Amino acid sequence: MSIRVYDTRKRKKLPFEPVDPKRTGMYVCGMTVQDKPHVGHKRYAVAGDVIRRYLESKGFEVVYVTNFTDIDDRIIERANKEGIPFDKVSERNMKAFLTYSDLLNIKRATHYPRATEHLPEIIALIQRLIEKKHAYVSGIDVYFDVRSYPKYGQLSGRKVDDLRQGVRIEVGEMKRDPLDFTLWKGAKPGEPSWPSPWGPGRPGWHIECSAMAMKYLGETFDFHGGGQDLVFPHHENEIAQSEAATGKTFARYWIENGLVLLRGAKMSKSEQHFFLIEDVAKKVEPEVIRFYLQSTQYRSPIEWNEDRLREAGIAYARLKSALETGEKSGDGTPDPALAGGATELPANAKVLAEARKTEKLFQESMEDDFNSAKAQGHLFDLAKAINRVSESGRMSEVERAALPEATRTLRRLGETLGLFWDANGAEEAIPDEVQALVTQRDEARLQKQWQRADELRAEIQALGFVLEDQKGGTRARRKL
RNA sequence: GGCGGCAUAGCCAAGUGGCUAAGGCGACGGUCUGCAAAACCGUUAUUCCCGAGUUCAAAUCUCGGUGCCGCCUCCA
């Protein structure tokens, strides 16, 4: 058993060798909170959460850090437009981010550091870079000297000389080299600012992540994630400024996730080409959104598409249904095979064999660069085995005795992927209104009033529930 | 123009040197059902964008095409 991780920097899968055998650190670049979160912001959150949950299931203590960039030009722009302080804008969008993280069963991070709360750390890091001659003061700004760091470009595979053309210098910037990037941006009149040795100003975009990652995870840590659109320049610059300052490896594994596409093109704030997660959540069950987002390997792009989501809903319902079936037949039923004092589950039960096999394949999938798509796929084989046992009228005692254990395996593996949390209480909370209609329909069916029964079923379906007439009675489920 | 990635059935998606090319959706046939739904059983890629090469052996490696995506400016 060994975990292998694809590292963007080395461009290959490497064995996972944590800095600390018991504890691992993950830094996942969060969002700039000038706006509400869109689906793309949930892709990286889900991808990170899956990896985190898996590592935790392997016994690691995971220190998980996701930042908020709560000060930058866009936020200031937005605040000015609305005529409110910048922190009102960032505050409300951070809140929205967390609301929808919870909705998608994304575990809360260990830390959610914000740039504006880490000015001392940021300033100290910039000072360190100036002392080492990797940064210089120019006018009211401080820049990183890219030419002073020969390994620049190692993450994104770029050569400094190739980059020379095309780089733009904004008005007012006084860089020695067009490639140099801002560490500290001196404030213009009326802009929010913090005091520093170089005068009032605010941090550049990249420096906060280096400072905060090092503060919470140490100068060298295991995982650094974020969207693939951050590879260059953001992550490249993070490596440059961090490793130039410490002389040590910064993050050991760079695990950038593929982007969410909309009609074939990247979801993006600046292009106004995106779906807000709050709008999507009104139409699609949160469990299905999550299931869908992790049904593709995290490094591949994923198309956001209503047809795909509907299919995902059907597929996911299959898993949930098997789980429910298994748990229902398992609960409260004495296991005949165990009644005689037997302490071990019947090893020759087919469901149990399937559960063991699924467990093995699931683990192998996740060990191979956290392939949740593959792991999730294996769950369907176990679901089928559980349904098969529950289905057959002449279920053997051996199979029945093994069913609870097999079902527990399904639940445990699903939960490792962050599934099966029943976001809307779909199982328990059948509204009284719906339940009353179900009862009426049952009565009609007893009297063989089929037309009346069908009308009632149509009404119930219109309320978003599906019916399953079973031997023991009618089961109503929320449609996923 | 430079850098990186992707191309697998009707659709989505695993698989990156050798067992029958996972799984889901859809479709078709069957069981069950008052009819459905769900579930179960069966069928649905002699073949992995195209061409050449390496190898006893390639969807998987190499080279050359074609198409798509991302980055090179803020973006998860």
Automatic annotation (TrEMBL):
The UniProt annotation puts motif 'KMSKS' region at: 266-270
UniProt-annotated binding residues for ATP: 269
Major localisation: cytoplasm
**Cysteinyl-tRNA synthetase class Ia DALR domain segment(s):** 361-425
- GO cellular component terms? cytosol
User: What one GO molecular function would you report for this record?
Assistant: cysteine-tRNA ligase activity
What keywords sit in the KW lines? Answer: Aminoacyl-tRNA synthetase, ATP-binding, Cytoplasm, Ligase, Metal-binding, Nucleotide-binding, Protein biosynthesis, Zinc
User: Binding residues for Zn(2+), per the UniProt record?
Assistant: 29, 209, 234, 238
Keyword Transmembrane helix tagged? no
Q: Which SMART domains match?
A: DALR_2 (SM00840)
Q: Which cofactor does it need?
A: Zn(2+)
Q: Where is this motif: 'HIGH' region?
A: 31-41
What subcellular locations does the record give?
A: Cytoplasm
One Pfam family here? tRNA-synt_1e
Q: How is the cofactor bound?
A: Binds 1 zinc ion per subunit.
Q: Can you tell me where the transmembrane regions are? A: none
Example GO BP: cysteinyl-tRNA aminoacylation
Q: Tell me the enzyme class.
A: ligase
Q: Which gene encodes it?
A: cysS
Q: Write out the similarity annotation.
A: Belongs to the class-I aminoacyl-tRNA synthetase family.
State the oligomer form and interacting partners: Monomer.
Name listed for the protein in its UniProt record: Cysteine--tRNA ligase
Query: Which catalytic reaction applies to this protein?
Result: tRNA(Cys) + L-cysteine + ATP = L-cysteinyl-tRNA(Cys) + AMP + diphosphate
Cite the EC number.
6.1.1.16
List the lineage, top down. Answer: Bacteria, Candidatus Eiseniibacteriota
